[in-house]
Structure formats: C-alpha cells, structure tokens
Design a protein that fits this description.
The complex is a heterodimer of chains A (about 290) and B (about 280). With about 290 residues, chain A is mainly α. Chain A contains 11 helices and no strands. Chain B has helices at about 1-25, 30-55, 65-75, 75-110, 115-125, 135-140, 145-170, 175-180, 185-225, 230-240, 245-270. Chain B is about 80% helix and about 0% strand. The chains are: A mainly alpha (about 290), B mainly alpha (about 280).
Amino acid sequence: MNRVLPVLTVLTGIVVIWYAAAVWMNAAWVFDQAQRAGQEVTWAEVIPQTMDQPRPLLPPPHQVGAELWKGLFGQAVTSKRSLVYHGIVTLKGTMMGFGLGIVVGVLLAMAIVRFRVMDLSVMPWAIISQTVPIVALAPMIITVSSQLGLSGRDVPKAVIAAYLSFFPVLVSMVKGLRSPDQMQLDLLKTYGAGEAATFLKLRLPASMPYFFASLKVAVAASLVGTIVGELPTGAIEGLGARMLIGSQFGEPLIMWAALFAAAILAGLLILTVGLVERVARRRMGVPA
Amino acid sequence: MTALWIAIGIWLAAWALNVWLSASPISQTRLGKLLVPLVFGATVLVLWEGLVRGLGIAPVILPAPSAIAAKIAVSLPILWQDFAQTILKGAIPGFLIGAGAAFLVAIAIDRSPFLQRGLLPIGNFVAALPIVGLAPILVMWFGFDWQSKAAVVVVMVFFPMLVNIVAGLQASERMQRDLMATWGASYVQTLIKLRLPAAMPFVFNGLKIASTLALIGAIVAEFFGSPVYGMGFRISTEVGRLGLDMVWAEIAVAALAGSALYGLVALIERWVTFWHPSQRH
C-alpha cells in the first residue's frame, strides 16, 4: 500500500508534463493558422486551441482517453474500428507465439541440461540468435510464408513472437532444471530413481519458480513480436496494423489510441501470468 | 538430391565430432568451448546449402548461403551505407543518449526513496510495453532522417536502463554502507566509491538488453519512413521486390552488428566488474 501514493504522484507528474508538452508542441500550429489569417493571438487564446485539434502533433491525455474510450466501448466489438476487435487479433497472435515459444524453450532447455553436446553447441547460438534484430526478419517471414501457401498472417506473426519469447524461457529453464543441488540428486540416487523419475520428481518441480518468472518476460516479448509482425507489409488487422494505418493516413489519434490499447493488453497479460503463477505456487505448496 | 545427402552426411559426421569433443577433456579448455559451437554453426550452413540445392528450393523462398555470400561480396558499398545510416547514426547515438539519460535520472532520484517507489513500478511496466509502437509518432516528430531513429532508440533503451540502474544503486549491502558511514564518507564519496561500482553488474545487464533493443528500434523506425538508404528501408523494399538474397545480406550485417555491440558491452563488463563472482572463472 505504501507504493500507491508515490506511483500516483509520479503519474500525476507525467500527466502534467504531458499537458505542458502538448501545449508547447501544438501551439506552433495555432500560431501558424493565426498568422495566415493575419491575426494576433495571445497565449490565453492559444492554450484552449491546443487541446482539441483534429490532428495534433501531441494529443493531450484527455483526447487520447476519449479516442481510446471510443475505440474500446464506442462501437460493436466486431466492428473494424473497434480496438477490442484489433486487440483480440493481436492477442491471438501473441498467445500462439507465446505457446510456441514456451514449447521450444522448454524442450531446448531439457535437451541442453541432459546432453552436454547440446549445451556446448546450441547455447552460444541461442544467445547470438537474440542479438539478431528479429524485426529485420519480419517482412521476410511474412512474404516467405505466403509463398509457401500460408495465406493467413497468424503463422508468421506467431513465428516472430515465438522467436522473441523462447529465449527467456530457455535461459530460466536451464537455470531451473540445474537448480537441484548435489545432495538432492544423491538422495534420489539412493532411492534408486532412474533418469526419468529424477527429472519428473526433482528437476521439473524445482524449475517451476524459474519457469514462472520467465513467463512474464516472455509474454511481454511475445506481444512486442506480434505487434512488430503486424507492422510491415500492409496488415489490416491487429493493434500494430492500427498504428501503421494511423501513421500512413496522418491520424495521430488512431496511433495513440492503438498504442495505449497495446499497453492495456500488455498489462492484462502480465497480470494474468502473475495470477496463474500464484495459483500454481499455492497448489505446489509454496507459501505465496 | 546428392547435394542434400552429402550435406546430411557432413552434418552427422560433424555432430559425431561434437559429441566426441564435448565428452573429451578438450571441451574443458577455452579452445574447445569455442570450437564446438563453431563446428555446429558451420554444419548448419552446410545443411542449409544442401537443403536448398538438393530440394531445389526457389531463391525467392530461401537463398543458399553461398548466394548470400556472393551478394554480400558485390554489394559492400550499399551495405556499408545502410550500416552507417542505421547503426552508426541511428542505433549507437540513441543507445548512448538513452543510457546516459537513464543514468542521470537514476542519480537524480537516488536521494528520494519516494520518487523511486513511484518510478520503479511504472518503469518496470513501461519496460514491458511494446514501445516500438512509438516509432511512427517519433518519425512524425523528428522527420525521416536518422534523428527520428535515434529518438526511437532513446525511448526504447531508457526504461530498461532506468530500472536496472535504480535496482543496482540499491545493491550495496547495509554493512558496507555502514562501514562507509563510520569512515565519515559523504554522500558523493559513498556513491562514487561504493554504490556505483556495486551497481555495475546491474548496469551492464541493462546495457546488454539495451544493445539488442537499440538495433530493433533503429530498424523498425525505418519501416515508417526513411531516406532511400538504411537497413530497415533496404529490407522492406527488397522484400517487396523478392530480392531475398539482399535481405539476408542485410540480416547478416544486422546479426554481426548486434553480436559485435553485445560482445563489446560484455568485454567492457569483464573489464569493469572483474571483481564480480560471475566474472571469476
């Protein structure tokens, strides 16, 4: 609870700075208009005019809020102008990529922990793979998958999202599967446990805290990947596509609303993962 | 088909070599730790080449590594121009400004636990957001040239860095700070001699994350408008013309630049935080 007040203070500060910046940046347009009309304007007249321009350089918070509200609740969910509709498209891509990333990350981690040769050969490349800016691959993955006969955009988006999200899972799972110490491993050996039993009854449960910690990072990375996958080559659905449309048609309000919708989606995803984590921890008997 | 079988044969042989290498004492040495991944990487290239040739995959789907290498060799001036525009002018200045700004803000709020408690959750949240989405807005503000790319990178780098530096400044232990106090060290002295060095592992952790974010930001921002050169511009236009060998050439450059930047940060880290347990092998 002692965090609520500071957070609110900082948020208020951000809003104040935002308004000031909006006045400052949008004023140029007002002065420009006035000069063309041959009028003199005072600051008292300028400030209200910076607050509701149709195409502001920096829309003030209430304008973004209104646009966001309109996008979220102002129309039917199935409408192409509804941010809920685009959000669901993005969410679908995110979840597919997230799932794929988890599977790839966990399987690779299992192989790496079990086989030393995998550890030595694959692990360095897994690290290098993340220094490759995946977005560079995004347009290409989309073209190639369409040439392979996959007409939808779901698969390429999921591939990009999985590429970004498998890595945190991989790193944490490798750490987690190796976290049981020698004493515990020895104990299982005295029980005559085989490799499979050691894995299922010791290594896997021991890795769970690491696993859940990585999921929060992975889900955020997956969302970034999905949005980036929607950006290039003229997608029409999804929050990334809304940003692109806003950019191409010079409608800053659409861009800002899509951006905040993406932020809300990210927040919801992280909260959900946190909730799943808490439930899982309780069921495993870890004091929350 | 023979090309494919030869490639698969080489792959199996190299894998066997790797299995033998990693079981032998050589793999404990530095050379072995370098050799095994190199062999693995090389065989992936061989297998790729064999797949493309053996199955006759069209170059518009996947060009062979040899074709990509040939393309790189003939288009070095273009690649350099794109590299200079995107990495040297966009990513690196943005990276430095963003990291520097985060550092200054972290120091500025260091004396106010109130502001820290307010900023940390927000910073953590913003660091998880798809900041890339700001790219079109910043391109609108700063124009098509490298300034807008650097601005995108600044915003993307800032929050992960801020969170890491603030966490790092709290990393020194109570005992250590008490010791500084008993020596009569001032705030600035404690900061410079104890808390900043103690924060360095966190700072470099942030810098490593930021180094990959910087490249992503600089390239994505070019999708929203750029001069007629730059890596993001080249990739999106060449994809449109199905010139995939050029796209892969750019990706190779991007991968090289990303790894080099990451490697440079890791190298400086080893030099600065030589005392940290993770650096003492």
